[in-house]
Specification:
With 153 residues, this protein is mainly alpha-helical. It has a two-stranded antiparallel ribbon with strand order 1-2. Strand 1 and strand 2 form a beta hairpin. The chain is rod-shaped, with a radius of gyration of 35 Å. The termini are far apart.
Length: 153
């Protein structure tokens, strides 16, 4: 045996009484964990909480088992992940709406440009100037079709 009884007793950590308030604080930390700065969540073990709060191991394990902390933790995790999935889905929907609006605006601009070129071509031809050749008209036609497809996305 190393040391005498007094030295061994001095090495023991005094345990804190598990009051209802402390038990609830530990339960919440065990079930919900703590959110880190990066938005991640860390879930401490019962042993880590026993060390942190200096409570008796047997007492905390018994309280955890009696009150169903593990099931509460699993339910919280399930609901938390569902909430995160819903937020991600909502963000994707909003981004999709922005992309659709941008695509429609680009399609409108493209159609307006094609329209301007066709009007200019008509005016040039009425004024006795050469009009667009067949490949240029085909290019404008393809641009108009692309704009139409883009707007329908």
């Amino acid at each position: 045996m190393v040391g005498n009884n007094w030295e061994n007793m001095a090495k023991k950590v005094k345990k804190v009484k598990l009051t209802d308030t402390l038990k609830e604080k530990i339960r919440v930390e065990y079930v919900q964990g703590a959110e880190l700065s990066a938005g991640e969540r860390t879930l401490p073990t019962l042993d880590a909480l026993i060390t942190k709060y200096r409570v008796a191991k047997t007492t905390l394990y018994r309280a955890s088992a009696t009150d169903g902390w593990k099931a509460q933790r699993e339910r919280f995790q399930y609901e938390y992940m569902a909430r995160l999935d819903e937020e991600r889905t909502n963000n994707l929907v909003e981004e999709s709406k922005k992309l659709d609006n941008t695509s429609i605006n680009l399609a409108k601009l493209l159609m307006a440009t094609v329209g301007q070129q066709i009007r200019k071509n008509s005016q040039d031809m009425m004024g006795g100037l050469d009009g667009l050749n067949a490949s240029q008209i085909l290019s404008l036609s393809n641009a108009a079709l692309s704009a139409q497809r883009l707007a329908k996305m």
